[in-house]
UniProtKB/TrEMBL annotation:
InterPro entries: Claudin, Claudin_CS, PMP22/EMP/MP20/Claudin. Keywords: Cell junction, Cell membrane, Membrane, Tight junction, Transmembrane, Transmembrane helix. PANTHER family: CLAUDIN (PTHR12002). The chain crosses the membrane at residues 82-102, 118-141, 161-184. Its main location: other. GO terms for cellular component: bicellular tight junction; plasma membrane. Coiled coil: none annotated. This is Claudin. The gene is Cldn19_0. The keyword RNA-binding does not apply. Belongs to the claudin family. It comes from Asarcornis scutulata. It comes from the Eukaryota. It is found in: Cell junction, Tight junction; Cell membrane.
Length: 209
């Protein structure tokens, strides 16, 4: 795979991961009510996310309510919120920086070495974004697992992983993969030497004339 094709593939993967992370952050299905074991099955399914909680009736009607207070939320929810916001911001800046640094675009400096370094910077931003998403989702999943197996949690009040967690894990994987491909654009010493040789040729020719 050529350098330009690799950059484009990495950019598309990272962009898809960022969109998936945005969807995961907005979805209310970070955890859902569990019917495992001897739990009493009711006509209401409960879903909770970072920003709201929802109740789904057996008739298909869904009622959602935003979390009332930020400070009254559990620590893991506040931490996951912060990490997802940081992840989305890093990914947004990564999208802009990567467009400037990619070989297939005519934006910014024409020097291929400079553009490669900018593309690497965009890849680093994407990797950091993916790591933040991974940390947020894993932290939330750890808390759900702890509460599920805790003896102090009533059986009919236990929760399991929601679909948003799996979307978040997929988003983190895509973003890190795309950022890694962009980081492969790092200019080697050989390429830097060739660029320096091309830039120094005209001045050398003038000296002999």
């Amino acid at each position: 795979m050529g350098g330009g094709a690799r950059e484009l593939a990495g950019y598309l993967a990272a962009l898809g991961g960022w969109v998936a992370a945005l969807a995961a952050a907005a979805l209310p299905q970070w955890r859902q009510s569990s019917y495992a074991g001897d739990a009493i099955i009711t006509a209401v399914g409960l879903h909770e996310g970072l920003w709201m909680s929802c109740a789904a009736q057996s008739t298909g009607q869904v009622q959602c309510r935003l979390h009332d207070s930020l400070l009254s939320l559990d620590v893991h929810i506040q931490t996951s919120r912060a990490l997802m916001v940081i992840s989305l911001l890093l990914g947004f800046f990564g999208i802009i920086v990567s467009v400037v640094g990619m070989k297939c675009t005519k934006v910014g400096d024409e020097d291929p070495v400079t553009k490669s370094r900018i593309a690497v910077a965009g890849g680093v931003l994407f990797i950091l974004s993916g790591l933040c998403t991974l940390a947020a989702v894993s932290l939330y999943a750890t808390q759900v697992t702890y509460e599920f197996f805790s003896a102090s949690t009533p059986i009919n009040a236990r929760y399991e992983f929601g679909s948003a967690l799996f979307v978040g894990w997929g988003a983190a994987s895509l973003t890190i993969l795309g950022g890694s491909l962009l980081c492969c654009s790092c200019p080697t010493k050989e390429r830097q030497g060739q660029q320096y040789y091309r830039q120094s040729q005209p001045s050398t020719a003038r000296e002999y004339v």
